[in-house]
Design a protein that fits this description.
The longest helix is centred in the middle third of the chain and has 15 residues, at 157-171. By secondary structure, the chain is an alpha/beta fold. The model has no long low-confidence stretch (mean pLDDT 94). Helix content is 38%, strand content 20%. It has a five-stranded parallel β-sheet. The chain is built from eleven helices and eleven strands.
């Protein structure tokens, strides 16, 4: 069994994900927001690379059934219902709704994963739930890839640390696991911070930018390990929650 970590989706080739179970990570904030939205009863989250695509798709829904969400340069897109702050995706706001989401980094990463066997959206808030699925796949002999969205085509500390946490726990007590150098580096980053996730987010460049932009409260939500125990699966261009209505 093989586990590779990729620090950014731009370096991926089709062979890197073909037939693999893939976890995509964008801790600040798309992965967290997706988990929170589904945990609070959203019917589905549909990712888009551009705001224009999201607006166009929204016209195929009854307005009361859909919520437009997205950000550019951290702030909400004018005219959209929400930005990308997980604080906005309360049960009252999203239960039973389809969320059309576009973000700077996370939704573009999802679009790059054609050919994967399964794609799970992973973060700290749904760590144990997503890990259980990934470990089950690894025990079954599937090759895995963990793809960090990064920040504007650059390495991001928070995604690497989260990837390292997943890599360490996926490979724990499993024999004959090959990992790439990026996975080893990610595990070292995770080891440096341990359980001090919030401090790591504050140390990261994107975390500092969010704090300066007025989103400091988002960091606490994004650091809350296992606060939202759902497994968001991306297939057929939408993300839905693994559960009684969607068993694999």
């Amino acid at each position: 069994m093989r586990l590779d970590v990729f620090f950014g989706h731009h370096q991926l080739t089709p062979a890197d994900v073909a037939g693999r179970v893939v976890a995509v990570i964008d801790v600040l904030r798309a992965s967290t927001t997706v988990a929170v939205a589904l945990g609070n009863g959203a019917r589905a989250v549909v990712p888009f690379e551009s705001s224009e695509e999201a607006v166009l798709r929204s016209k195929s829904f009854e307005r009361s059934d859909v919520r437009l969400a997205g950000e550019r340069r951290m702030h909400a897109i004018p005219g959209f219902d929400f930005g990308n702050s997980p604080r906005e995706f309360t049960r009252e706001a999203v239960e039973g709704k389809t969320v059309l989401l576009t973000t700077t980094n996370g939704t573009a990463a999802l679009a790059s994963l054609q050919g994967a066997r399964d794609v799970v959206v992973a973060s700290y808030v749904n760590f144990s739930a997503a890990l259980a699925m990934l470990r089950a796949a690894a025990r079954g002999g599937a090759d895995l890839a963990v793809v960090c969205a990064g920040h504007e085509r650059q390495f991001s500390l928070e995604d690497a640390a989260c990837a390292g946490r997943y890599a360490r726990h996926i490979t724990k007590r499993l024999a004959n696991v090959d990992v790439n150098d990026a996975a080893r580096a990610a595990m070292l980053v995770n080891g440096k911070y341990g359980e001090h996730v919030h401090r790591m987010l504050e140390d990261s460049s994107h975390g500092r930018a969010l704090m300066e932009a007025g989103y400091a409260a988002d960091l606490a939500i994004c650091a809350a390990v296992d606060a939202c125990p759902v497994v968001p699966l991306y297939a057929d261009r939408q993300i839905t929650k693994l559960g009684p209505d969607r068993e694999r």
